[in-house]
Each structure stands twice: as structure tokens, then as C-alpha cells.
Amino acid sequence: MTVKKFIIIIVLFTLYGETFARVEYKGKFYRTREIGETEWLIQDLGGNGMGYKWNTAKNICPKGWHLPSNNEWRELNEIMKEDRRLFEDFVRNSSNHWWSSTSQTLRYAHLWFSIPTHVELGSNNLADKLNEYSVRCVKTKAPEP
């Protein structure tokens, strides 16, 4: 049995006067950004247009990261409504449809999408877990003592 190990490397860089981090995962680098109190991948995992079924999406994030819940998406949305540049950076080069870890039924889970004309995200959609959509990941917070 072969065990594959993936190394996560974090690199800081500055773009438009703001500091971003980059995480290496499976040979690709992904930009991350602290938004509110949560660190987000601000690029689609696997690249633009790469889709995953929900069961795969739940377990595809790098170690120490996870698929965001509806609550985490809502918090992000509230912050982005006030910051057009942040919103534009988040949706740039993206499929604009992302899985939530929040499951509704055995067959359906929540899906989030961008609404560029309103500078916000929406989630009135349930998607069949067998469909493929993009993944964004959030850094798992250490439990408070």
C-alpha cells in the first residue's frame, strides 16, 4: 500500500497593497485571504471549471482546511456586501458556484453562487450531491481553551 503525503507551503505576497498568503496543495498554489476572522482560499480548488461531487468536496480540502458551512458563507457574504473589491477578487476566474458542507437531505446539499449585479452571494439553491460544482475551503480554527 502506497501512502501519499501532500505538503502544504504557505507563502506571503503583496498585491494592490494587501498581503495575501498562498497555500501549495497537490502541486498547485492557491491564494488565501483573511476575511473577517476566517481565512479563505480565494481561488477554486483544482482550478477554474474543476468540479467535484459533494461527497468528494467534503473531503478534498487541504489538511487543516474544510468545506465551508452555510454559516461561514453567510458571514463571508455580509462582509463582501460592504467591499466590492473583495467581492470582485473572490469571484475572479471562478465558476461562481460553490458547495457548502451543509446537507439538506440524503440527496441534496446547499450551493452558493455569486450575484455580480448585487455584489453579494446567494444560496436559494439546493443541488443534487451527484452534480459537480467548485470548491472553496476555509481554514479550520483551533478550538478555544
Structure report:
- The protein has 145 residues and is α+β, with helices and mostly antiparallel strands.
- It has one domain: Roll (Mannose-Binding Protein A, Chain A).
- The chain has 3 helices and 9 strands; from the N terminus they run ββββαβααββββ.
- It has helices at residues 54-57, 70-80, 84-91, and strands at residues 10-15, 18-25, 28-35, 38-41, 65-66, 97-103, 108-115, 120-128, 138-139.
- The strands form 3 sheets. It has a 4-stranded antiparallel beta sheet with strand order 1-2-3-4. Strands 6-7-8 form a 3-stranded antiparallel beta sheet, covered by helices on one side. A two-stranded antiparallel ribbon has the order 5-9.
- Strand 1 and strand 2 (18-25) form a beta hairpin.
- The longest helix is centred in the middle third of the chain and has 11 residues, at 70-80.
- Mean pLDDT is 84; it is low at 1-17.
Instruction: Note the beta-strand portion.
Output: 35-45%
Q: How many strand elements?
A: 9
Unreliable parts: 1-17
CATH fold topology: Mannose-Binding Protein A, Chain A
Helix content: 10-25%
Q: Quickly name the level 1 CATH class.
A: Alpha Beta
Topology as a string of helices (H) and strands (E): EEEEHEHHEEEE
Number of helices: 3
| Number of structural units classed as domains | 1
Average pLDDT over all residues: 84
Helix-strand makeup class: alpha+beta
Largest sheet: 4 strands, antiparallel
Shape, please?
globular
CATH architecture: Roll
Please state how the strands of the largest beta sheet are arranged side by side.
1-2-3-4
Terminus-to-terminus distance:
38 Å
Radius of gyration: 15 Å
